Amino acid sequence: MGVSTLALMNVRSRDLGAPGGNGAAQAAQGRAEERARHELGEFLVNLDEPDPQAFVKTTIVVEYASTGKKSGEQGEGKELAPEWEVPVRDAVVSTLSQCRRADLRSEKGKEQLKKELLKRMNQSDDPSAPKFLAVYLTSFAMQ
Question: Are 7 and 25 in a shared domain?
Fold first, then answer.
């Protein structure tokens, strides 16, 4: 009971806290997908409205399939932006600037936006870009 129980407990404690949940079951089956998150930062974008002062302000975090190496790590606690961040931020700005207030007011509209962002991010021609798995809006305001 001692060694095998401890090994199983160690796997569970590591994987259950991982994004995506259900990590223990995936690890047991040998197909756990490593995931990482990266904050793209804040966006302030004009909306596709007749009112030139219509805008959305949001902070976005992306979750992606990790290769195991930390993208953009520099050392001494400093971290550079990953190579793929610029084209991804460009895709976010382009997508947001095509939205209208009515599209983004409801929860359904925000979910549709996240799906569209995910689709656009995964269409990148950048070879350094990972496979994006999820988009999170960690703050969101419109005017």
Answer: yes
Pair (23, 53) in one structural domain: no
User: Distance between CA atoms of 123 and 40, rounded to whole angstroms?
Assistant: 17
- Tell me the pLDDT tens digit for each residue of 13-54: 333 334 444 444 444 444 557 999 999 999 999 999 999 999
Helices 85-97 and 107-121, axial angle in degrees (round to 10): 140
The total of structural domains in the chain comes to: 2
Do 49 and 78 share a domain, yes or no?
A: yes
List, for residues 82-139, the tens digit of each pLDDT value: 999 999 999 999 999 999 999 999 999 999 999 999 999 999 888 889 999 999 999 9
C-alpha gyration radius of the chain: 19
| DSSP class per residue in 3-43 | HHHHHHHHHHHHHHTSTTS-HHHHHHTT-PPPEEEEEEEEE
Residue 39: alpha-carbon gap to chain centroid: 7
Q: Which two tokens stand for residue 105?
A: 């007011």
3-state secondary structure of 119: helix
